[in-house]
Amino acid sequence: MQELPQNKSTTIMIRITEIIEHTSYSLICKFNNGVVKKLDILPIIENHKHLEGVQKLLNEPVFNSVRIGEFGEIVWDKIVKNSHTGEDSYWDYDISPEFAYENSVEVESPLTIAS
């Protein structure tokens, strides 16, 4: 039996560790590799407007209720309406940390700038 080659590089699973700032439909997030990036959420909301309830994120207090989920994802609780079960229920709306990392731009941390 042939052995598989050993991969010497270690790949870490990217996670959001902190939401440093949330402003008008953008988030500045710190990732577990130390990188700080800004993610524009408005195009994501526009792309998902077919999901009933996502438009609630255009309401600033709802948008500001953002949190980090247990897997390092961006989460808004009970946003998307699910009517498929026969009774209305709501699902959390989340953005994976990988998507957030790949679709955001690197910025200096506002905490670094302030000090």
Task: List descriptors.
single chain; about 120 residues; alpha+beta; NE0471 N-terminal domain-like; four-stranded antiparallel beta sheet; 7 strands; globular
Could you explain how this protein is built, in words?
With 115 residues, the protein is an alpha+beta fold. It has a single domain (16-103), classed as NE0471 N-terminal domain-like (2-Layer Sandwich), CATH 3.30.2020. It has helices at 42-47, 60-63, 97-102, 110-114; strands at 16-23, 26-31, 36-40, 67-68, 74-82, 89-95, 105-106. A four-stranded antiparallel β-sheet has the order 1-2-3-7. Strands 4-5-6 form a three-stranded antiparallel β-sheet. Strand 5 (74-82) and strand 6 (89-95) form a beta hairpin. It is globular, with a radius of gyration of 17 Å. It starts with 15 loop residues before the first strand and ends with a helix. The model has no long low-confidence stretch (mean pLDDT 87).
Question: Quick one: overall form?
Answer: globular
Number of domains: 1
Straight-line distance between termini: 58 Å
Rg estimate, integer Å? 17 Å
Percentage of residues assigned to helices? 10-25%
The tally of beta strands, per DSSP, is 7
CATH architecture: 2-Layer Sandwich
Q: Count of helical segments? A: 4
Structural class: alpha+beta
Quickly name the level 1 CATH class.
Alpha Beta
Describe the main β-sheet briefly: 4 strands, antiparallel
Mean of the pLDDT scores?
Answer: 87
What is the succession of H and E elements?
A: EEEHHEEEHEH
Q: Give the amount of beta strand, in percent.
A: 25-35%
Strand order of the largest sheet: 1-2-3-7
Low-confidence spans? none
The CATH topology assignment is NE0471 N-terminal domain-like
